[in-house]
Design brief:
It is built from 5 helices and 5 strands; from the N terminus they run H-H-H-H-E-E-E-E-H-E. By secondary structure, the protein is of the alpha+beta class. It has one domain: Winged helix-like DNA-binding domain superfamily/Winged helix DNA-binding domain (Arc Repressor Mutant, subunit A), CATH 1.10.10.10. Strand 3 and strand 4 form a beta hairpin. The model has no long low-confidence stretch (mean pLDDT 84).
């Protein structure tokens, strides 16, 4: 996700380019790990001091819906967010430092296609997360 891609994507889908939305997008663009909404708020307020938590949640949901951001599931039903690099997200998530890394996943397409045929389910996208310890935390 680049600032220009996000701005163009918002415009294309009929959304305004507000300073709040751009601040949230920039925070996620610059992050090296996934962030909770509260963390996005804190960093976003450094860019745009009037940014509020409700706006952060709405913007995260919008950016997720448009495919610029991926929701990462954490323990106890909590969520964090990371920039989406591809339509399908494959993440390695460290339980200690919360670093998120993408990884290539070959062969999964065939499994999804076969599962869709067998079940009649129309799969629109997928998210695969492997949770453990990164090399630095082991």
């Amino acid at each position: 996700m680049r600032d220009t891609e996000t701005a163009e994507g918002l415009r294309t889908h009929g959304y305004k380019l507000t300073p709040q939305r751009l601040a949230v997008a920039r925070v996620l663009l610059e992050a090296s790990q996934h962030l909770t909404a509260a963390e996005v708020l804190g960093r976003g307020q450094e860019i745009y001091p009037q940014l509020g938590l409700t706006t952060v949640y709405r913007t995260l949901e919008l950016l997720t819906e448009l495919g610029f951001v991926r929701r990462v599931h954490l323990e106890k039903g909590c969520h964090a967010y990371a920039q989406a690099r591809e339509r399908e997200g494959h993440h390695l998530v460290c339980q200690v430092c919360h670093r998120v890394a993408d990884f290539p996943c070959t062969g999964l397409g065939e499994l999804i296609e076969e599962t869709a045929k067998r079940t009649g389910f129309a799969v629109e996208f997928h998210l695969l997360e492997l949770v453990g310890l990164c090399p630095a935390c082991q």
